[in-house]
Amino acid sequence: MAKIQFFLLFLIILCPILWANETAANSPTDRFEEVEGRGLVIQTTPRGARVFINGIDRGLTPITLENIQPGEYNVRLTRDGYKERSFDITLFSASRLIVSCELEEIKEAVSVSVLRDPQSPHLLPFKPEISTRALDDTFTVLSQDNTAVINLPAGNHIIRARAFGWEETSVSVFVSENTASSAQIYMKPAAFKMENISQSRRKFNPENSGNLGFTEYRFDVTAPGKGFITIFNSSGAVVYQRQLENFNTRFQQVTWNGKDLNGNKLPQGLYTVVFEAQAFEEFTSDEAKIVSIKLETEINYLLDIFYLPLDNVSAGLTFCPMPNTLAAGSYQFDAGAIFNTLVNDGLSASIGFPFKIGVRFAPAEKLELTSIININPQKDPGWSISASFKYNFLNNNSGIPLAFSAGILYSWASETGEPLLSCGQGIGLFTPVSFEFSRFLAVLCPTILWQGFESFIPELHLSAGLFYMGGWFNCGLSVRSEIDFNNITGFKFLTGAEAHFYPPVSNLVFYIQTGMWTQNTIIGVYAGFGMGLVF
Predict the structure, then answer these.
(1) pLDDT digit string, tens, across residues 47-75
(2) Is the CB of residue 307 less than 8 Å from the CB of residue 331?
(3) Which residues of the chain have pLDDT under 70?
(4) Do residues 170 and 161 make contact, with C-beta atoms less than 8 angstroms apart?
(5) DSSP for 435-464?
(6) Which residues lie across from 444 on neighbouring strands?
(7) 271 to each of 218, 237, 238, 401, how far by Cα in Å?
(8) Residue 343 — φ and ψ, nearest 5°?
(9) Which pTM was predicted?
(10) Residue in 259, 226, 217 with CA at minimum distance from that of residue 241
(11) What was the pLDDT predicted at 344?
């Protein structure tokens, strides 16, 4: 009998808890949890719901009521734009009830129609899109009859409509629960305008590689039309002109590579660029007036910008620094990985992911700073840092095909961090010289490197290379011999090949490289890849 009484008492205590959870089962995201303590905690998503307990306003969620007496209560939750919630709970003196509810947002379907203004030209293309802030301002393309049904939360909303060739228009619509809503938007043709003119490079050098060798003009038009680009030299003579493609979208772009009407490179100087455009007559009810915008572009053959790898302390070929410097204000980022293996050790490849990050910057004309960090996670990890300062005394644009620079470098590495392709640790002086013929550069660079105070006699590095400058890629070969006069067996010889690829209309560069090296009886080969950005 005592067991039966205990079982009945257990059911009496358990049933209210089960009943409280059952009343909330209309939302699978609700949670009713009994924990140690006493009182009631109500949490909602989103926060800020007003809580009524037995009809009495107790505040906004999240709310904690510690002094509420045990018993049965009705809880009602309200929040603007969300469906009201109501459920019953039972509180006990020996536990605290935590209620977590996710409120359901009130949404109703709104029928939207976008229509032409009755006075608009019938031939003007009409492909409207609509957006509203309630849908993250994302524009939605309408159906063929230019209508759409969208679900919006309760409240007041602004619905915007846009279409190329038409003025952007908006209407206000109020959405309430269980009430059908609709909106009609009438659009008028837009006046033809050219706006937001810009150019990718106000100064550029047509002899630079890839998109560094041209400038790109960008502008917006408000309606379909046609136009011309005309370029004048400093004397006012027309040096370039062509008709632009018909304007079928808002955003337009035109490139100019610094050449004249016959495809010849124009001389260095300042040029005036004029864009003239007008709407198609059949698409406008007014007279198709010509609108124009003007800007200036400079051709400067001293802006010798092209990508150079950053494997050496100074930019150049893999094993041969080059005298070229970036134009003032230009910079380059470089990142890549080099893998090494020993040929005469059963091709025992190194494990890990040795990589480098480099930056090249020109704070002034003919002056260039370079810095590189190498990291090898395989070795404890091992890492190194190097930097160089280079000044260009003579460049290829001076009237003779020679270029000459001089610089100072510094390199440091941890015990296991010296990278394979570096010139070693210490302080050094280098003097790269190049001779240009056609699209090729022949380069020679002697370097002296002091590795420390143990000996005053420096190492001698002799580097040479051949570099080809293409329109969408560069490539080169380079060699370096390292002679350590303090160690007769310290002779090292390295050779490598590389290729750099420029995607069209981009500042990106992708490169691959490979080569071999030998020191004493050791022979190794390496391969690498990476990418860079040149601005």
Answers:
(1) 999 999 999 999 999 999 988 999 999 99
(2) no
(3) 1-27, 209-211, 285-286, 304, 344-353, 378-380, 396-399, 453-455, 471, 488-490, 504-506
(4) yes
(5) EEETTEEEEEEEEEEE--SS-SPPEEEEEE
(6) 433, 464
(7) 17, 10, 10, 27
(8) -70, -40
(9) 0.58
(10) 259
(11) 67
